[in-house]
Amino acid sequence: MPTITRQSRSLSRPWMLLFIFVGVLVTPARAWDENGHVIVTRLAFKKLPDKMPDWLKTPAVRARLEYLSAEPDRWRGQHNVHLDHINSPNHYMDEELLFPYGLSFEKLPQLRREFLDILATQRAQTPEKFDPYDRKKDRKYTRLVPGLLPYHVAELQWKLAASWTTLKTYKKHRDYVSDEMFQNARQNIVYHMGIISHFVADGAQPLHTTEHYNGWAGDNPKGYTTDKGFHSRIDGGVLRHHGITPDSLAARALPPKDFNVQNYWREIINYLQATFAQVEPLYALEKSGDLDKEPGKKFIEDRLLEAGSMLVTIWTAAHDGAHIDDFRVQQLLRNKPKPKPVP
């Protein structure tokens, strides 16, 4: 049987074909609405460890982080093919769609391009395992990838660490750094913290780890919902139904996890595997009617709390991964003002 991908399955829907025909761009499912991303960011901010600098712990920085936490979803509103091509797959990875490639979360290579090479090689060598591909129906050229979420989280973690490295280097050589450079270095840290918050939160939403991302797909012996509005219901509808807000969860914020920064890839994969394990329990809650009751509230709150804990963990790991950038030091010393001659 050909493999049904997240993208090709959506193309089988009549309404989707209509949208493609008339040229309307369909916005893909998003993990958590803006309020959900703010909740996760607030939870992480509340648990910033003592070693984080005081300038980072201000209300102004918190407000900036919370605003940035939804920024990657705002990029989708531009409806630009170059932006959508790179942004869309970074929000998810469907484990079941890895299986035809001989992969799973456990077996993923650590590098994005290595992963993409494996996908292309498998499609070329065993085309019978995959659905026919029509490039004309894939304007953004994203339908051949099961998602890239773990790669994006790892890459953003190290971009954030690089920003901390710049600031650490500037602090050590403060006499050679202007106030503007120093403030810009801080602002870069805040920006990268805010952007990564979005994708870490996506990683705690079970529907961003599965082919059943918007209603159960394929064989359905347990009779789980096939409602195509299920994803949006989890992203925001359930939060609104239960009155889950940043303030309602703040007192229960979880501290950073133990995190082996030398094995950061495994830590990210473990996080996504734990989320994937919650896919069927989520569908079972919907089937039983408990999603709108206390068990459903607890389930969603636990997912948000877990995301907040993982986010502050990655923030902290990135901070701890900073070092002195020797090349940047050379640049600073090269621009050191020459001493004035003694009269």
Quick summary:
The protein is an all-alpha fold and 343 residues long.
Keywords:
single chain; 343 residues; mainly alpha; 15 helices; disordered N terminus
Your description of this structure?
- The protein is an all-alpha fold.
- Helix 3 runs antiparallel to helix 4, helix 3 crosses helix 9 and helix 3 packs across helix 14.
- The N terminus is likely disordered.
Give the terminus-to-terminus CA distance: 88 Å
Low-confidence stretches: 1-5, 7-27
Helicity level: 40-55%
User: Overall mean pLDDT score?
Assistant: 90
Rg over alpha carbons: 22 Å
Biggest β-sheet description: none
Number of helices: 15
- The helix/strand class is mainly alpha
Shape: globular
Strand content: under 5%
| Secondary-structure element order, N to C | HHHHHHHHHHHHHHH
Can you lay out the helices and strands and say which pair or pack?
Blueprint: H1 6-11, H2 14-22, H3 34-46, H4 59-68, H5 71-74, H6 81-87, H7 112-125, H8 149-172, H9 179-202, H10 230-242, H11 246-249, H12 264-276, H13 279-288, H14 294-320, H15 326-334
Helix pairs in contact: 3-4, 3-9, 3-14, 4-9, 8-9, 8-14, 9-14, 10-14
